[in-house]
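RECORD TYPE: inverse folding
INPUT: C-alpha coordinates
STRUCTURE:
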Protein backbone atom coordinates (compact mmCIF):
# COMPACT_ATOMS: atom_id res chain seq x y z
CA UNK A 1 0.00 0.00 0.00
CA UNK A 2 1.21 3.46 -0.86
CA UNK A 3 1.67 6.00 1.95
CA UNK A 4 1.18 9.68 1.14
CA UNK A 5 4.36 11.30 2.46
CA UNK A 6 3.91 14.23 4.84
CA UNK A 7 6.35 16.32 2.77
CA UNK A 8 4.37 15.89 -0.43
CA UNK A 9 1.09 16.51 1.40
CA UNK A 10 2.47 19.69 2.97
CA UNK A 11 3.77 20.78 -0.42
CA UNK A 12 0.29 20.35 -1.94
CA UNK A 13 -1.27 22.41 0.86
CA UNK A 14 1.32 25.18 0.40
CA UNK A 15 0.58 25.26 -3.33
CA UNK A 16 -3.17 25.49 -2.69
CA UNK A 17 -2.70 28.27 -0.11
CA UNK A 18 -0.39 30.31 -2.33
CA UNK A 19 -2.67 29.68 -5.27
CA UNK A 20 -5.79 30.80 -3.40
CA UNK A 21 -4.00 33.99 -2.33
CA UNK A 22 -2.90 34.64 -5.90
CA UNK A 23 -6.42 34.07 -7.26
CA UNK A 24 -7.87 36.35 -4.60
CA UNK A 25 -5.31 39.04 -5.41
CA UNK A 26 -6.21 38.81 -9.08
CA UNK A 27 -9.89 39.42 -8.39
CA UNK A 28 -9.27 42.18 -5.84
CA UNK A 29 -6.97 44.15 -8.15
CA UNK A 30 -9.21 43.89 -11.24
CA UNK A 31 -10.63 47.34 -12.17
CA UNK A 32 -14.17 48.02 -11.02
CA UNK A 33 -15.12 50.89 -13.35
CA UNK A 34 -14.07 52.91 -16.40
CA UNK A 35 -12.22 55.49 -14.29
CA UNK A 36 -9.83 52.81 -13.03
CA UNK A 37 -9.28 51.62 -16.62
CA UNK A 38 -8.38 55.16 -17.71
CA UNK A 39 -5.90 55.39 -14.85
CA UNK A 40 -4.32 52.06 -15.84
CA UNK A 41 -4.10 52.94 -19.53
CA UNK A 42 -2.74 56.42 -18.90
CA UNK A 43 0.09 54.90 -16.88
CA UNK A 44 1.21 52.81 -19.84
CA UNK A 45 3.78 54.09 -22.30
CA UNK A 46 1.64 53.18 -25.30
CA UNK A 47 -1.83 54.36 -24.43
CA UNK A 48 -3.92 52.60 -27.08
CA UNK A 49 -7.18 54.19 -25.99
CA UNK A 50 -5.64 57.66 -26.12
CA UNK A 51 -4.17 56.97 -29.53
CA UNK A 52 -7.50 55.79 -30.88
CA UNK A 53 -9.27 58.81 -29.43
CA UNK A 54 -6.67 61.19 -30.91
CA UNK A 55 -6.95 59.62 -34.35
CA UNK A 56 -10.72 59.81 -34.16
CA UNK A 57 -10.60 63.52 -33.24
CA UNK A 58 -8.12 64.23 -36.02
CA UNK A 59 -10.43 63.09 -38.80
CA UNK A 60 -11.83 66.20 -40.50
CA UNK A 61 -15.54 66.60 -39.98
CA UNK A 62 -15.75 63.88 -37.34
CA UNK A 63 -18.44 64.49 -34.81
CA UNK A 64 -16.81 65.00 -31.41
CA UNK A 65 -19.77 63.47 -29.65
CA UNK A 66 -19.41 60.27 -31.68
CA UNK A 67 -15.68 60.26 -31.01
CA UNK A 68 -16.31 60.48 -27.28
CA UNK A 69 -18.85 57.70 -27.53
CA UNK A 70 -16.38 55.48 -29.37
CA UNK A 71 -13.74 56.23 -26.77
CA UNK A 72 -16.17 55.25 -24.00
CA UNK A 73 -17.04 52.01 -25.82
CA UNK A 74 -13.34 51.23 -26.08
CA UNK A 75 -12.85 51.81 -22.37
CA UNK A 76 -15.83 49.57 -21.56
CA UNK A 77 -14.33 46.88 -23.78
CA UNK A 78 -10.97 47.12 -21.99
CA UNK A 79 -12.80 47.09 -18.64
CA UNK A 80 -14.47 43.78 -19.56
CA UNK A 81 -11.13 42.36 -20.70
CA UNK A 82 -9.36 43.30 -17.46
CA UNK A 83 -12.26 41.99 -15.39
CA UNK A 84 -12.11 38.77 -17.41
CA UNK A 85 -8.39 38.32 -16.73
CA UNK A 86 -8.59 36.61 -13.28
CA UNK A 87 -11.61 34.60 -14.46
CA UNK A 88 -9.77 33.48 -17.58
CA UNK A 89 -6.67 32.55 -15.56
CA UNK A 90 -8.85 30.46 -13.25
CA UNK A 91 -10.69 28.94 -16.19
CA UNK A 92 -7.52 27.91 -18.09
CA UNK A 93 -5.97 26.17 -15.07
CA UNK A 94 -9.26 24.53 -14.05
CA UNK A 95 -10.05 23.06 -17.47
CA UNK A 96 -6.42 22.02 -18.06
CA UNK A 97 -6.12 19.86 -14.94
CA UNK A 98 -9.62 18.44 -15.35
CA UNK A 99 -8.87 17.43 -18.93
CA UNK A 100 -5.59 15.81 -17.88
CA UNK A 101 -7.61 13.40 -15.72
CA UNK A 102 -10.08 12.91 -18.60
CA UNK A 103 -7.20 12.13 -20.96
CA UNK A 104 -5.92 9.48 -18.53
CA UNK A 105 -9.45 8.04 -18.28
CA UNK A 106 -9.63 7.75 -22.08
CA UNK A 107 -6.18 6.12 -22.17
CA UNK A 108 -7.29 3.66 -19.47
CA UNK A 109 -10.44 2.79 -21.46
CA UNK A 110 -8.35 2.19 -24.57
CA UNK A 111 -6.14 -0.23 -22.64
CA UNK A 112 -9.24 -2.11 -21.50
CA UNK A 113 -10.78 -2.37 -24.96
CA UNK A 114 -7.46 -3.25 -26.63
CA UNK A 115 -6.88 -5.93 -23.95
CA UNK A 116 -3.34 -4.62 -23.70
CA UNK A 117 -0.96 -6.96 -21.92
CA UNK A 118 1.73 -4.42 -21.03
CA UNK A 119 -0.26 -1.89 -19.01
CA UNK A 120 -2.22 -3.56 -16.13
CA UNK A 121 0.61 -2.87 -13.64
CA UNK A 122 -0.09 0.83 -14.29
CA UNK A 123 -3.86 0.65 -13.84
CA UNK A 124 -3.83 1.84 -10.23
CA UNK A 125 -1.75 4.86 -11.21
CA UNK A 126 -4.27 5.69 -13.93
CA UNK A 127 -7.18 5.23 -11.50
CA UNK A 128 -5.46 7.47 -8.98
CA UNK A 129 -5.11 10.25 -11.56
CA UNK A 130 -8.73 9.91 -12.67
CA UNK A 131 -9.81 10.37 -9.03
CA UNK A 132 -9.32 14.08 -9.70
CA UNK A 133 -12.04 14.07 -12.36
CA UNK A 134 -15.04 14.33 -9.95
CA UNK A 135 -13.39 17.16 -7.99
CA UNK A 136 -12.32 19.02 -11.10
CA UNK A 137 -15.75 18.51 -12.69
CA UNK A 138 -17.59 20.06 -9.74
CA UNK A 139 -15.36 23.14 -9.68
CA UNK A 140 -15.56 23.51 -13.44
CA UNK A 141 -19.36 23.15 -13.51
CA UNK A 142 -19.66 25.85 -10.82
CA UNK A 143 -17.53 28.18 -12.98
CA UNK A 144 -19.79 27.49 -15.98
CA UNK A 145 -22.87 28.32 -13.90
CA UNK A 146 -21.22 31.57 -12.73
CA UNK A 147 -20.55 32.42 -16.39
CA UNK A 148 -24.25 31.92 -17.09
CA UNK A 149 -25.15 34.16 -14.14
CA UNK A 150 -23.03 36.95 -15.73
CA UNK A 151 -20.29 37.03 -13.11
CA UNK A 152 -17.90 37.51 -16.03
CA UNK A 153 -17.79 38.13 -19.78
CA UNK A 154 -15.85 35.03 -20.88
CA UNK A 155 -18.64 33.88 -23.20
CA UNK A 156 -19.99 36.94 -24.97
CA UNK A 157 -22.89 35.00 -26.47
CA UNK A 158 -24.31 34.71 -22.93
CA UNK A 159 -24.84 38.50 -22.89
CA UNK A 160 -28.30 39.40 -24.33
CA UNK A 161 -27.10 42.90 -25.31
CA UNK A 162 -24.25 41.47 -27.39
CA UNK A 163 -26.54 38.93 -29.06
CA UNK A 164 -29.10 41.66 -29.88
CA UNK A 165 -26.49 43.52 -31.98
CA UNK A 166 -24.67 40.53 -33.49
CA UNK A 167 -26.43 38.77 -36.35
CA UNK A 168 -23.87 35.98 -36.57
CA UNK A 169 -24.35 34.98 -32.92
CA UNK A 170 -28.12 35.23 -33.41
CA UNK A 171 -27.93 32.54 -36.10
CA UNK A 172 -26.22 30.24 -33.54
CA UNK A 173 -28.53 31.02 -30.63
CA UNK A 174 -30.47 27.77 -31.10
CA UNK A 175 -27.29 25.96 -30.05
CA UNK A 176 -25.46 28.61 -28.05
CA UNK A 177 -27.95 29.39 -25.30
CA UNK A 178 -27.40 28.94 -21.58
CA UNK A 179 -30.04 26.25 -20.77
CA UNK A 180 -28.96 23.92 -23.61
CA UNK A 181 -25.26 24.67 -23.00
CA UNK A 182 -25.34 23.91 -19.26
CA UNK A 183 -27.45 20.77 -19.76
CA UNK A 184 -24.90 19.49 -22.28
CA UNK A 185 -22.12 20.22 -19.79
CA UNK A 186 -23.96 18.32 -17.07
CA UNK A 187 -24.50 15.29 -19.33
CA UNK A 188 -20.85 15.22 -20.40
CA UNK A 189 -19.45 15.52 -16.88
CA UNK A 190 -21.89 12.99 -15.42
CA UNK A 191 -21.19 10.52 -18.22
CA UNK A 192 -17.42 10.70 -17.82
CA UNK A 193 -17.60 10.41 -14.04
CA UNK A 194 -20.08 7.52 -14.20
CA UNK A 195 -17.65 5.51 -16.34
CA UNK A 196 -14.79 6.36 -14.01
CA UNK A 197 -16.80 5.20 -10.98
CA UNK A 198 -18.05 1.91 -12.44
CA UNK A 199 -14.79 0.97 -14.17
CA UNK A 200 -12.84 1.42 -10.93
CA UNK A 201 -15.51 -0.47 -8.98
CA UNK A 202 -15.33 -3.40 -11.41
CA UNK A 203 -11.53 -3.38 -11.41
CA UNK A 204 -11.45 -3.61 -7.60
CA UNK A 205 -14.16 -6.29 -7.59
CA UNK A 206 -12.12 -8.33 -10.06
CA UNK A 207 -9.38 -8.65 -7.41
CA UNK A 208 -11.75 -10.64 -5.20
CA UNK A 209 -13.59 -12.56 -7.95
CA UNK A 210 -13.19 -16.21 -8.92
CA UNK A 211 -13.69 -15.59 -12.64
CA UNK A 212 -13.26 -12.81 -15.19
CA UNK A 213 -16.84 -11.51 -15.13
CA UNK A 214 -15.94 -8.08 -13.79
CA UNK A 215 -13.14 -7.78 -16.33
CA UNK A 216 -15.64 -8.52 -19.10
CA UNK A 217 -18.02 -5.91 -17.69
CA UNK A 218 -15.20 -3.38 -17.82
CA UNK A 219 -14.46 -4.34 -21.41
CA UNK A 220 -18.09 -3.69 -22.40
CA UNK A 221 -18.53 -0.39 -20.57
CA UNK A 222 -15.12 0.81 -21.78
CA UNK A 223 -16.17 0.25 -25.39
CA UNK A 224 -19.40 2.18 -24.79
CA UNK A 225 -17.53 4.95 -22.99
CA UNK A 226 -15.11 5.44 -25.88
CA UNK A 227 -18.00 5.99 -28.28
CA UNK A 228 -19.55 8.45 -25.82
CA UNK A 229 -16.16 10.10 -25.29
CA UNK A 230 -15.43 10.61 -28.99
CA UNK A 231 -18.70 12.48 -29.49
CA UNK A 232 -18.73 14.46 -26.24
CA UNK A 233 -15.07 15.45 -26.43
CA UNK A 234 -15.61 17.21 -29.75
CA UNK A 235 -18.77 18.97 -28.57
CA UNK A 236 -17.05 19.88 -25.29
CA UNK A 237 -14.20 21.57 -27.19
CA UNK A 238 -16.73 23.66 -29.16
CA UNK A 239 -18.80 24.53 -26.09
CA UNK A 240 -16.10 25.31 -23.55
CA UNK A 241 -13.23 26.66 -25.64
CA UNK A 242 -14.15 27.53 -29.24
CA UNK A 243 -17.37 29.34 -28.27
CA UNK A 244 -15.35 31.88 -26.27
CA UNK A 245 -14.85 33.33 -29.76
CA UNK A 246 -18.24 32.52 -31.33
CA UNK A 247 -17.34 34.16 -34.67
CA UNK A 248 -14.62 31.61 -35.42
CA UNK A 249 -14.69 27.88 -36.01
CA UNK A 250 -12.43 25.04 -37.11
CA UNK A 251 -13.53 21.54 -38.07
CA UNK A 252 -10.23 20.21 -36.68
CA UNK A 253 -10.63 21.82 -33.31
CA UNK A 254 -12.05 18.81 -31.43
CA UNK A 255 -9.14 16.62 -32.49
CA UNK A 256 -6.67 19.38 -31.72
CA UNK A 257 -7.93 19.81 -28.15
CA UNK A 258 -7.98 16.03 -27.69
CA UNK A 259 -4.37 15.67 -28.79
CA UNK A 260 -3.31 18.37 -26.34
CA UNK A 261 -4.91 16.96 -23.20
CA UNK A 262 -4.37 13.30 -24.20
CA UNK A 263 -0.58 13.65 -24.45
CA UNK A 264 -0.67 15.66 -21.20
CA UNK A 265 -2.51 12.78 -19.51
CA UNK A 266 -0.02 10.18 -20.73
CA UNK A 267 2.86 12.41 -19.61
CA UNK A 268 1.26 12.68 -16.16
CA UNK A 269 1.03 8.87 -15.91
CA UNK A 270 4.74 8.66 -16.74
CA UNK A 271 5.74 11.36 -14.24
CA UNK A 272 3.75 9.88 -11.34
CA UNK A 273 4.99 6.37 -12.17
CA UNK A 274 8.59 7.58 -12.06
CA UNK A 275 7.94 9.29 -8.74
CA UNK A 276 6.42 6.16 -7.20
CA UNK A 277 9.30 4.06 -8.54
CA UNK A 278 11.78 6.44 -6.93
CA UNK A 279 10.04 5.87 -3.58
CA UNK A 280 10.29 2.08 -3.84
CA UNK A 281 6.76 1.33 -5.11
CA UNK A 282 5.57 -0.34 -8.34
CA UNK A 283 8.20 -3.07 -8.18
CA UNK A 284 6.80 -4.78 -11.29
CA UNK A 285 7.07 -1.66 -13.42
CA UNK A 286 10.30 -1.86 -15.41
CA UNK A 287 12.10 0.21 -18.03
CA UNK A 288 10.06 -1.41 -20.79
CA UNK A 289 6.85 -0.01 -19.32
CA UNK A 290 8.47 3.41 -18.99
CA UNK A 291 9.77 3.14 -22.55
CA UNK A 292 6.25 2.47 -23.84
CA UNK A 293 4.85 5.49 -22.00
CA UNK A 294 7.65 7.62 -23.46
CA UNK A 295 6.80 6.33 -26.95
CA UNK A 296 3.22 7.47 -26.46
CA UNK A 297 4.49 10.86 -25.27
CA UNK A 298 6.63 11.13 -28.39
CA UNK A 299 3.96 9.83 -30.79
CA UNK A 300 1.16 12.07 -29.58
CA UNK A 301 3.46 15.09 -29.51
CA UNK A 302 3.96 14.49 -33.23
CA UNK A 303 0.19 13.98 -33.65
CA UNK A 304 -0.51 17.29 -31.90
CA UNK A 305 1.97 19.03 -34.19
CA UNK A 306 0.34 17.51 -37.27
CA UNK A 307 -3.04 18.88 -36.18
CA UNK A 308 -1.55 22.25 -35.20
CA UNK A 309 0.07 22.65 -38.61
CA UNK A 310 -2.95 21.35 -40.52
CA UNK A 311 -5.27 23.81 -38.81
CA UNK A 312 -2.84 26.71 -39.15
CA UNK A 313 -1.75 26.06 -42.74
CA UNK A 314 -5.23 25.54 -44.21
CA UNK A 315 -6.72 28.62 -42.55
CA UNK A 316 -3.72 30.83 -43.24
CA UNK A 317 -3.46 29.77 -46.89
CA UNK A 318 -7.22 30.21 -47.54
CA UNK A 319 -6.97 33.70 -45.98
CA UNK A 320 -10.71 33.98 -45.31
CA UNK A 321 -11.05 37.06 -43.05
CA UNK A 322 -13.41 35.56 -40.46
CA UNK A 323 -11.13 32.53 -40.09
CA UNK A 324 -7.62 33.94 -40.37
CA UNK A 325 -8.33 36.61 -37.72
CA UNK A 326 -7.93 33.86 -35.10
CA UNK A 327 -4.27 33.38 -36.01
CA UNK A 328 -3.54 37.04 -36.78
CA UNK A 329 -4.55 37.91 -33.21
CA UNK A 330 -2.32 35.22 -31.75
CA UNK A 331 0.69 35.98 -33.94
CA UNK A 332 0.50 39.74 -33.36
CA UNK A 333 -0.51 39.85 -29.69
CA UNK A 334 0.62 36.43 -28.36
CA UNK A 335 3.72 35.90 -30.45
CA UNK A 336 5.88 34.39 -27.70
CA UNK A 337 3.37 31.91 -26.20
CA UNK A 338 1.98 31.02 -29.64
CA UNK A 339 5.29 29.96 -31.18
CA UNK A 340 6.73 28.98 -27.79
CA UNK A 341 4.06 26.29 -27.52
CA UNK A 342 5.29 24.78 -30.81
CA UNK A 343 8.85 24.65 -29.51
CA UNK A 344 7.82 23.13 -26.18
CA UNK A 345 5.30 20.65 -27.60
CA UNK A 346 7.07 19.62 -30.80
CA UNK A 347 10.74 20.55 -31.19
CA UNK A 348 11.71 19.69 -27.62
CA UNK A 349 9.98 16.24 -27.46
CA UNK A 350 11.24 15.38 -30.97
CA UNK A 351 14.86 16.22 -30.18
CA UNK A 352 14.84 14.48 -26.78
CA UNK A 353 12.49 11.50 -27.09
CA UNK A 354 13.38 10.36 -30.61
CA UNK A 355 16.38 8.60 -29.06
CA UNK A 356 15.39 5.09 -27.89
CA UNK A 357 17.85 5.05 -24.98
CA UNK A 358 16.58 8.39 -23.66
CA UNK A 359 13.11 6.89 -23.26
CA UNK A 360 14.44 4.80 -20.37
CA UNK A 361 16.41 7.48 -18.50
CA UNK A 362 14.47 8.95 -15.58
CA UNK A 363 15.91 12.46 -15.41
CA UNK A 364 15.47 12.97 -19.16
CA UNK A 365 11.85 11.84 -19.01
CA UNK A 366 11.15 14.12 -16.03
CA UNK A 367 12.67 17.06 -17.89
CA UNK A 368 10.80 16.25 -21.10
CA UNK A 369 7.55 15.63 -19.21
CA UNK A 370 7.80 18.94 -17.35
CA UNK A 371 8.31 20.85 -20.61
CA UNK A 372 5.45 18.99 -22.32
CA UNK A 373 3.02 19.75 -19.47
CA UNK A 374 4.05 23.42 -19.34
CA UNK A 375 3.82 23.57 -23.12
CA UNK A 376 0.29 22.25 -23.21
CA UNK A 377 -0.79 24.61 -20.44
CA UNK A 378 0.52 27.39 -22.70
CA UNK A 379 -1.43 25.78 -25.55
CA UNK A 380 -4.69 26.05 -23.56
CA UNK A 381 -3.66 29.59 -22.60
CA UNK A 382 -3.37 30.39 -26.33
CA UNK A 383 -6.77 28.85 -27.05
CA UNK A 384 -8.65 30.81 -24.39
CA UNK A 385 -6.90 34.05 -23.44
CA UNK A 386 -6.89 35.96 -26.78
CA UNK A 387 -10.68 35.76 -27.06
CA UNK A 388 -11.21 36.44 -23.34
CA UNK A 389 -8.76 39.28 -22.61
CA UNK A 390 -7.39 40.36 -26.00
CA UNK A 391 -4.20 42.40 -25.75
CA UNK A 392 -4.58 42.90 -21.98
CA UNK A 393 -2.74 39.68 -21.16
CA UNK A 394 0.40 38.95 -19.18
CA UNK A 395 1.55 36.09 -16.97
CA UNK A 396 0.84 37.62 -13.58
CA UNK A 397 -0.08 36.64 -10.05
CA UNK A 398 -3.57 35.46 -11.02
CA UNK A 399 -2.23 33.09 -13.70
CA UNK A 400 0.54 31.68 -11.52
CA UNK A 401 -1.78 31.46 -8.51
CA UNK A 402 -4.41 29.54 -10.51
CA UNK A 403 -1.84 27.00 -11.67
CA UNK A 404 -0.49 26.62 -8.12
CA UNK A 405 -3.96 26.09 -6.65
CA UNK A 406 -5.08 23.44 -9.11
CA UNK A 407 -1.68 21.73 -9.13
CA UNK A 408 -1.78 21.48 -5.33
CA UNK A 409 -5.35 20.20 -5.41
CA UNK A 410 -4.44 17.71 -8.14
CA UNK A 411 -1.49 16.36 -6.17
CA UNK A 412 -3.53 16.06 -2.98
CA UNK A 413 -6.50 14.27 -4.59
CA UNK A 414 -4.43 11.92 -6.77
CA UNK A 415 -1.96 10.79 -4.12
CA UNK A 416 -4.70 10.45 -1.52
CA UNK A 417 -6.54 8.15 -3.94
CA UNK A 418 -3.39 6.06 -4.42
CA UNK A 419 -3.37 5.27 -0.68
CA UNK A 420 -6.84 3.70 -0.76
CA UNK A 421 -6.07 0.42 -2.57
CA UNK A 422 -3.02 -1.76 -3.36
CA UNK A 423 -0.99 -0.49 -6.30
CA UNK A 424 -1.11 -3.86 -8.08
CA UNK A 425 -4.34 -5.35 -9.53
CA UNK A 426 -4.24 -9.00 -8.45
CA UNK A 427 -6.78 -10.78 -10.66
CA UNK A 428 -6.52 -8.99 -13.98
CA UNK A 429 -6.26 -11.70 -16.71
CA UNK A 430 -3.17 -10.02 -18.16
CA UNK A 431 -1.39 -9.19 -14.92
CA UNK A 432 1.28 -11.87 -15.25
CA UNK A 433 2.04 -10.82 -18.79
CA UNK A 434 2.31 -7.24 -17.58
CA UNK A 435 4.63 -8.17 -14.70
CA UNK A 436 7.03 -9.88 -17.08
CA UNK A 437 6.79 -7.38 -19.88
CA UNK A 438 10.22 -6.94 -21.49
CA UNK A 439 11.58 -6.24 -24.93
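DESIGNED SEQUENCE:
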Amino acid sequence: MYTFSSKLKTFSFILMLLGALGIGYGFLTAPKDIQEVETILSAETHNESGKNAHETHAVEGENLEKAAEKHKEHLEHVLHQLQNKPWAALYVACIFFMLISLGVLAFYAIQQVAQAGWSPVLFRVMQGITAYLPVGSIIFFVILVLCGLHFNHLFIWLDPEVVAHDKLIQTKSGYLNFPFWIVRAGIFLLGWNAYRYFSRKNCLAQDEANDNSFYKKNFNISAMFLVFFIVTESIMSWDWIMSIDPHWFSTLFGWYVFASFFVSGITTICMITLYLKSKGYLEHVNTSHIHDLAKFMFGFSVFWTYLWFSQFMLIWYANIPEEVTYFVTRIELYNLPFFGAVVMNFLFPILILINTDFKRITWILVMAGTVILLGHYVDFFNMIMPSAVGDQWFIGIAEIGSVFFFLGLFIFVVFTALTKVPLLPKRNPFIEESKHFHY
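NOTES: Residues 47-60 have pLDDT under 50 and may be disordered.
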